[in-house]
Amino acid sequence: MNKEPNFFVHESSVVDDGALVGEGSKVWHFSHVSVGARIGKSVILGQNCFVGSRAVIGDRCKIQNNVSVYSGVVLAEDVFCGPSVVFTNVINPRAFIERKDEFRVTNVGRGTTIGANATIICGVDIGQYALIGAGSVVSRNVPDFALVLGVPSRQVGWVDKHGNRLNLPLTGNASVDHGNFGGSYKLVGDRLIHSSHEAD
Q1: Which of 7, 111, 130, 148 is the 20 to 30 A CA-CA neighbour of 171?
Q2: Which is higher by pLDDT, 92 or 4?
């Protein structure tokens, strides 16, 4: 186990030797962090979580109960995963075929929220500050600031950095200004650009 003394591991949990856990992080009941996993600073792993050997969890992420972050999943800083979020890492698994050399990388951008019971199919890129609704099944890339819902998921709108829905069309040319609260957002085609009036 990482010799850094400045993180907490509940007595019922296991952090393997060779796992890296950052300062101020907390690993709660019945969780397992595998050798080779990398967890940043001030991360919270809830009850009954698993972190695979090549998984990466950025600083200040919050992983709620019953979430497995498998090898090949990369979470940037400040990602929130609701209870029982499901990640995958093989697109066509078979119990009788070993496919550990076929793991597909899944990237989740900074500040994104993934709602409870959502399923993220491996190999997708989810942009920064996106919001994935509870129970959604994500099988394709998600843009920055996108609000995504459904099975299979589809984009239904845009959100700001704070998770509030923006009054903007899905595509076109438009903008909205939050003034000193969150900056301004400019829609260019199918891409939303944020310009902050405050320090991040």
Answers
A1: 111
A2: 92
55 pairs with which residues across the strands?
none
Q: pLDDT digits over 65-92, tens only?
A: 999 999 999 999 999 999 999 999 999 9
CA–CA dist 114, 163 (Å, integer): 11
Find tokens 């959100």 and name the residue.
159
- Tokens representing 35 are 């050798």
> Got the DSSP string for 172-197?
EEEEEE-TTTT-EEEEEETEEEEE-S
Tokens linked to 83? 């209870």
3-state secondary structure of 126: strand
Q: How far apart are CA 28 and CA 83, in angstroms?
A: 14
In one-letter notation, the amino acid at residue 108 is: V
Q: For the residues 184-195, what does the mean pLDDT come to?
A: 94
What letters, b where the CB count within 10 A reaches 16 and e where it falls short, cover 157-176?
bbbbbeeeebebeeeeeeee
CB-based contact 91:123 (threshold 8 Å): yes
C-alpha–C-alpha distance, residues 168 and 16, integer Å = 47
CA distance 175 to 198: 18
- Amino acid letter, 199: A
Please, what sign has the CA dihedral across residues 49, 24, 16, 112? Answer: positive
How many residues are listed for the chain in this entry?
200
- Both tokens of residue 60? 């200040």
